């Protein structure tokens, strides 16, 4: 690796010398084997910071560039998207799996969306949140694409953003089945892919073209 090359799936830190990675942890679920692998690499490579992110991922921070590829191998190549222009992750609340407030299976739907769409190349990064009830514990209304459950089905929203210019997402459709959500998310991603400007996040895209135009294209 030359000094100018970016290690696979890594983010340069403010010291200009060390890197961080975010191994894939679909919808924030961690198995004992994954925990063992993380524990092993943290000790083996003396990684100084291990941090749970707002997107339900685990960031490993402070490694050298030449260590990154070996760490990915030790983790079974569970490479998480960090800076790529694509779907980065799907976060989800527990939903009906365990939560007393859950009315829909947010984990099941989140895992399906993760499997189908994470890594899909797009004009800018996209983050999704799937909540199993209207409390929206998975930040659904401030994600690029959000899903929230109620007793009558799922609602899908588009164009949320929590950053320095926050925006509450627009509801695109309501009372959907899980299969209908998967199909609508596909249409939203494809419309965004084909019509957004490079590095234009979903929130800014929705402001530019208008939610009614988006709904007309996907419904």
Automatic annotation (TrEMBL):
InterPro entries: NasD-like (IPR052034), NiRdtase/SiRdtase_haem-b_fer (IPR005117), Nit/Sulf_reduc_fer-like_dom_sf (IPR036136), NO2/SO3_Rdtase_4Fe4S_dom (IPR006067), NO2/SO3_Rdtase_4Fe4S_sf (IPR045854), NO2/SO3_Rdtase_FeS/sirohaem_BS (IPR006066), Sulphite_reductase_assimil (IPR017220)
Positions of the Nitrite/sulphite reductase 4Fe-4S domain: 90-218
Keywords per UniProt: 4Fe-4S, Heme, Iron, Iron-sulfur, Metal-binding, Oxidoreductase
Domain Nitrite/Sulfite reductase ferredoxin-like positions: 12-76
PANTHER family: NITRITE REDUCTASE (NADH) LARGE SUBUNIT
Keyword Transcription set for record: no
Organism of this sequence: Fundidesulfovibrio putealis
Molecular function GO terms recorded: 4 iron, 4 sulfur cluster binding; heme binding; metal ion binding; oxidoreductase activity
UniProt protein name: NAD(P)/FAD-dependent oxidoreductase
């Amino acid at each position: 690796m030359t000094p100018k090359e970016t290690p696979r799936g890594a983010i340069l830190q403010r010291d200009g010398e060390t890197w961080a990675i975010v191994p894939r942890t679909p919808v924030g679920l961690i198995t004992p084997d994954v925990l063992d692998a993380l524990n092993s690499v943290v000790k083996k490579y003396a990684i100084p910071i291990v941090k749970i992110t707002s997107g339900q991922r685990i960031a490993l921070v402070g490694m050298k560039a030449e260590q990154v590829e070996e760490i990915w191998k030790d983790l079974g190549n569970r490479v998480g998207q960090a800076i790529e222009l694509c779907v980065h992750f799907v976060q989800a609340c527990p939903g009906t799996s365990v939560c007393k407030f859950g009315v829909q299976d947010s984990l099941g739907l989140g895992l399906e969306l993760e499997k189908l769409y994470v890594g899909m190349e797009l004009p800018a990064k996209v983050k999704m949140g799937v909540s199993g009830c209207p409390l929206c514990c998975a930040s659904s209304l401030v994600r690029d694409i959000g899903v929230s459950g109620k007793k009558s089905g799922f609602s899908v929203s588009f164009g949320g953003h929590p950053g320095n210019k926050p925006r509450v997402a627009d509801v695109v459709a309501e009372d959907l089945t899980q299969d209908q959500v998967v199909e609508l998310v596909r249409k939203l991603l494809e419309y965004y892919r084909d019509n957004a400007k490079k590095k234009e996040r979903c929130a800014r895209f929705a402001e530019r073209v208008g939610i009614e135009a988006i709904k007309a294209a996907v419904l």
